[in-house]
Design goal:
single chain, alpha+beta, 7 strands, 7-stranded antiparallel beta sheet, 34% helix
């Protein structure tokens, strides 16, 4: 019985450890913002943290095509993949490829979209992924 319980708990330990590290990192980041003397810099610091905590605009697994979305000002396309393969095509309103983006081995990356307009995203991934549209600070 004890071995069966250990087999259930052990796989959870890395996830719990990672969550604890992430929380500690966020606490440190908030403390750094709080310690910033200049009010404008402090606000910008908090705004950057708020963007990191915002839910993704798009999320899924494997392959997807998003609905069109419009941007009116420069926007940061932030994308994150949990798998070894992730290819993202930023497309214009006519379906033409504006930018080909990718992450090899998982992780997070960004791309700045400077031109206002209507866009969509075509995603090809090997695992789960998340995408945010953040205003340029």
């Amino acid at each position: 019985m004890a071995l069966a319980m250990l087999g259930t708990v052990l796989p959870l330990l890395p996830a719990a450890h990672a969550a604890g590290e992430a929380e500690a990192g966020m606490r440190a980041a908030f403390a750094k913002c709080r310690g910033t003397g200049d009010g404008a810099e402090r606000l910008a610091c908090y705004d950057r943290l708020a963007a990191l905590l915002a839910p993704p605009r798009f999320q899924g697994r494997l392959t997807a095509q998003t609905e069109p979305f419009a941007i009116e000002a420069p926007t940061v396309l932030r994308y994150e993949s949990d798998g070894p393969i992730f290819v993202l095509y930023l497309k214009d309103a006519a379906g033409g490829i504006v930018q080909n983006l990718h992450i090899g081995g998982g992780g997070t990356a960004t791309h700045r979209i400077d031109a206002p307009g209507t866009y969509s995203l075509q995603i090809s991934g090997s695992e789960t992924w998340r995408i945010w549209l953040d205003p340029v600070p």
